[in-house]
Amino acid sequence: MTTLTRFIFAISLFLGTSLQAMAEDNGDRFVLTLFTNAGQIQGTAMTLARTLAGEGHEVHILLCGPAGELAIADRMPETLEPRTITPRELMEEAMSAGASVSVCPLFLPNTAFGRYSTDDFVDGVTEDSDAQMAERLADPNTKVLGF
User: Fold this and answer.
1) Strand arrangement of the beta sheet that strand 125-127 belongs to
2) 27-146, CATH topology level
3) Cβ-proximal residues to 62 (8 Å cutoff; 6+ apart), any chain
4) Residue 53 burial (C-beta neighbours within 10 Å; 0-12, 13-18, 19+)
5) What are the structural domain ranges in the chain?
6) How far is it, in rounded angstroms, from Cα 146 to Cα 126?
7) What is the DSSP string of the chain?
8) Distance of CA 60 to the CA centre of its chain
9) Are 94 and 46 in contact (CB under 8 A)?
10) Which of 65, 70, 127, 144 is most buried by a 10 A CB count?
C-alpha cells in the first residue's frame, strides 16, 4: 500500500468516524414543517418522514396552514403515482413507522370558519400548543426541515 493510499484511507476513516460522532452529538431528531397543499410536496415530505422514522430517528411532522387539511379525516388529497397513494396515506405510513403528527395552534380556529375540531383529525394527529411548537422548533438538537 502506497503512502498516498494509506493517507487517503486514514482521512476517509477519520471523516467517517467524525461525521458519525457529530450526528450522535447533534441528536437524530427531525421536525418536518409542512405549509403547502401541493400533493407532490406533501408526498415528498411524508416519504422523507417515513424513511427517517423507519431508520430509527425521532420524527415529528407539523402541519400548518393549508397543509393542516391532511389532518382532517374526511378530506382526501390527490393520489400520487407511481404507488397510487395519497399524501395522507404516506403520512399514516410515517406514523406507523414512529413519526408523530400535529397541526399548528392557529389551524383549527382559522380554517373553514371553525368547522373542524380535533375530533375530525385522523387517529393519532394532535393539535400543538404554542409552547409545544416552540419547544420542538427551538431545540438545538433538532433538525428542522420546511416544505
Assistant:
1) 125-127, 100-103, 58-63, 29-34, 142-146
2) Hypothetical Protein Ychn; Chain: A, (3.40.1260)
3) 31, 32, 33, 34, 101, 102, 103, 104, 128, 133, 136
4) buried
5) 27-146
6) 19
7) --HHHHHHHHHHHHHHHHHHHHHHHT-SEEEEEE----HHHHHHHHHHHHHHHHTT-EEEEEE-GGGGGGGBTT--PPPBTTTTB-HHHHHHHHHHTT-EEEE-TTTGGGSGGGT--GGGBPTTEEE--HHHHHHHHH-TTEEEEE-
8) 5
9) yes
10) 70
Burial of 130: CB neighbours in 10 Å, binned 0-12, 13-18, 19+: exposed
Q: Give burial (CB, 10 Å; 0-12/13-18/19+) of 9.
A: exposed
* pLDDT single digits (tens) 57-112: 999 999 999 999 999 999 989 999 999 999 999 999 999 999 999 999 999 998 87
- Amino acid letter, residue 56: G
Which set of grid coordinates corresponds to residue 60? 415529528
Question: How many residues can be counted in the chain?
Answer: 147
Prediction pTM value: 0.80
Residue at grid coordinates 399548528 = 104
C-alpha cell of 41? Answer: 410536496
